[in-house]
Amino acid sequence: MAAIVSRGERVLIKPNLLAAKSPEQAVTTHPALVQVVAELVTEAGGIALIGDSPGIGGFRRVAQKSGIAAAAAASGTALVEFTDSVEFPSTGMFHRIQLARAYLDADKIINLPKLKTHEMMTMTCAVKNLFGAVVGTQKAAWHLKAGTSQELFARLLLEIYLLKKPALNIVDAIVAMEGNGPGSGDPVQRGILIAGVNPVAVDVVAARLAGLDADLLPLEREAERMQLPGSRLEDITIYGPALDTLVGARFRLPGGLDVQFGLPGFLKKVMKQNLLAFPAADTKKCVLCGVCRNACPPAAITIQNNALSIDKARCIRCWCCRELCPHDAMAVRRGLLLKILTTLSGRKKP
Predict the structure, then answer these.
(1) DSSP 174-221
(2) Rounded CA gap, 63 and 60, in Å?
(3) Cα–Cα distance between 68 and 54 in angstroms, integer?
(4) Are 159 and 152 in contact (CB under 8 A)?
(5) Segment 322-343, tens digit of pLDDT
(6) Structurally, what CATH architecture does the domain formed by 10-245 represent?
């Protein structure tokens, strides 16, 4: 750690604190990893801080439930809630991006993502975890602005990474998540930590360990299109066991992913209802708490006549509703043609 952290530096440790879930549910970064990293930063002479902006729930509650608050106390580390933002000029496609002041003010960032499947981006890992530097409801605004396209949202994530690059990334893949990630999937034992200074390269390696190729990963494809270092596996130097000795069964994919067959854009538009999957309330689980409605970027969800209603014409399929539902009550409803194509393609259902 002394090679990363200099004495007196303020080092922000950025775990995944998506929601108030216990460590066993594999939704958040395991507190044991957070505690050890905080202790190593302190031993190196740095001033360790732990911060994030949860997708749902108050920061203190999420930190308490996930065990991160206990890890902070045990390591003598301050918890920092991301509250106010600073507008940061960008030379990329998105000219101005607001990120948490605490994130930008830190001398160094140590990124501690959880390896999970993701309904919109297939996988969330090091680069996606940095989206947590966007404060609170501003996440919904970015989903509305860039979330209509996987490629555009991938570009946004990469530009956030480029604004302030982490000094170190350590992926918690001891117990990862497959299926309907990032909030409602199933824990899967992998027993692996992945570390590197380049989050793009870390994500590429993590994806192969999860059995996922670039054709399923819009972020990896966009990174390669931007010619970012680390976007090609053959250019990455890997230390430790050979990668092929660590690859297990492919992660089960989320139910909301599209099956892309190179159809013309006009045909996809015409056949949207049949080609795509949309969120749908599971009436046996839904308690009409309103979390999904309040989190929906395009306001496509309403509660009417004691029932949840989703306007498919307005839905941008960002899957924030599925990601943030505290009751795992948002199901996936596939269009008829998508059901047929999914079966023919052999893609596994969650």
Answers:
(1) EEEEESSTTTS-EEEEEEEEEEES-HHHHHHHHHHHTT--GGG-HHHH
(2) 5
(3) 12
(4) no
(5) 888 999 999 888 765 545 545 5
(6) 3-Layer(aba) Sandwich (3.40)
The second-level CATH assignment, the architecture, of 265-345 is 2-Layer Sandwich (3.30)
Tokens of 248: 């297990």
**Nearest one of 232, 207, 186 to 124, comparing CA atoms:** 207
Break the chain into its structural domains and give their ranges. 10-245, 265-345
Cβ–Cβ under 8 Å, residues 135 and 84: yes
As a whole number of angstroms, the distance between CA 350 and CA 339 comes to 13
Residue 113 has what DSSP assignment? Answer: -
Convert the pLDDT of each residue in 190-224 to its tens digit.
Answer: 999 999 999 999 999 999 999 999 999 999 999 99
Assign 260 a pLDDT band (cuts: 50, 70, 90). very low
User: Using CA atoms, how far apart are residues 280 and 310, in angstroms rounded to an integer?
Assistant: 7
What average pLDDT does this structure show over 117-135?
A: 96
Nearest-angstrom CA–CA distance, 135 and 341? 38
For residues 123 and 214, give the distance between their C-alpha atoms in angstroms, rounded to a whole number: 11
Calculate mean pLDDT across residues 295-303: 92
Residue of 248, 211, 29, 256 lying closest to 121 (CA atoms): 256
Which residue is associated with the tokens 């108050």? 58
Enter the tokens of residue 195: 């570390």
Contact 177, 187 (CB under 8 A): yes
